[in-house]
Amino acid sequence: MFPAERPRRLRRTPALRRLVAETTLTPANFVAPLFVAEGLREPRPIPTLPGHVQHTIESLRDEVAALARVGVTSVILFGVPEQKDEIGSGAWDPNGVAQVALRALRDDFGDDVVVMADLCLDEYTSHGHCGVVRRDGTVDNDATLELYARTAIAQAEAGAQVVAPSGMMDGQVGAIRAALDEASRDDVTILAYAAKYASVFYGPFRDAVGVEIVGGGDRKSYQQDFANRREALREARADVEQGADLVMVKPAMSYLDVVADLRRELTVPLCAYHVSGEYAMIKAAAAQGWLDASAAAVEQLTAVRRAGADFVLTYFARELAEEWSR
Ligand code: PBG
């Protein structure tokens, strides 16, 4: 007996495989996360994210130009301030490092690059939490919303086309949308970190931005519990109702079920964040000679697209796009 089904016929040659590929991965699908630090004279390498640095304003401009040359025309910016305080006031200071960087990028690139700003307080607070901390150590949701609104306006005024609230406070998208509209900035897009899980995979990022949570604390009282799947849908629906234009799942690889759920249930564009720990694991294994980093990255990032994400935030953006352009 001969088998009737012959899927292997379509796998015979690279050209055939390209023809029938259900999923593609291109530089247009990438958003590059970038760090800019205040008061630096030279870019400072980030040991936990090999190949990445804390940028000066000048090196940031060069980096974005290099990304755009290979087709990566979306970036998300994280500011690393020199001074921190209890409420994270550097986040909305018009001369704060993120705002200075946003202005520089819009000056250089205008509308040719989508410039996103991560909107959170943790890089700017002395205690490392994403919001206002009460005397008893708990995070005050509604007091934090007011500060997110101020930050959104400062980022919009500095030139961010997209603001991306990542603090997981309830009602953050609605509060930011209202503040932006009130300031006549209805043109500014909101990318909601809708389903953001309390994850060990953010470890290298916290080193990259110099964030340490006071008293060895964690974010489990505001970020999602990784035991939960339906809750992500509840979070994402609330964000869309409050005005989110784009929705994110974070991290990526351990949450592909969540990506698939949101793809099925929502019509807004969807993305996932392949986070620092996911990048660092691949890099660490590759450094041992145990696997090929870019092949591993392509396989994982394609899986994120296959699960239903339209685009992906990834520290591999530049290296893959450069490899493909050679
Ligand atoms: C919070 C924020 C974090 C990341 C992006 N935005 C860290 C956290 O929630 O602790 C993590 C990104 C990564 O790990 O690559 N501002």
- In terms of structural class, how would the helical and strand content be classed? alpha/beta
Quote the average pLDDT: 97
With strands numbered from the N-terminus, the spatial order across the biggest sheet is: 1-4-5-8-9-10-11-12
Q: Please give the number of β-strands.
A: 12
Ligands (ions, cofactors included): ligand PBG
Written overview of the protein:
By secondary structure, this protein is α/β, with parallel strands linked by helices. The chain has a single domain (24-325), classed as Aldolase class I (TIM Barrel). The protein is 39% helix and 17% strand. It has eleven helices and twelve strands. The protein has helices spanning 14-20, 57-69, 97-109, 141-158, 172-182, 203-208, 230-242, 256-265, 276-287, 293-307, 317-325, and strands at 30-37, 44-45, 53-55, 74-80, 114-119, 132-133, 139-140, 162-165, 189-196, 246-250, 270-274, 311-314. It has an eight-stranded parallel beta barrel, surrounded by eight helices. A hairpin with a 5-residue loop joins strand 6 and strand 7. Helix 2 (57-69) crosses helix 3 (97-109) and helix 5 runs parallel beside helix 7. The mean pLDDT is 97. The chain binds ligand PBG.
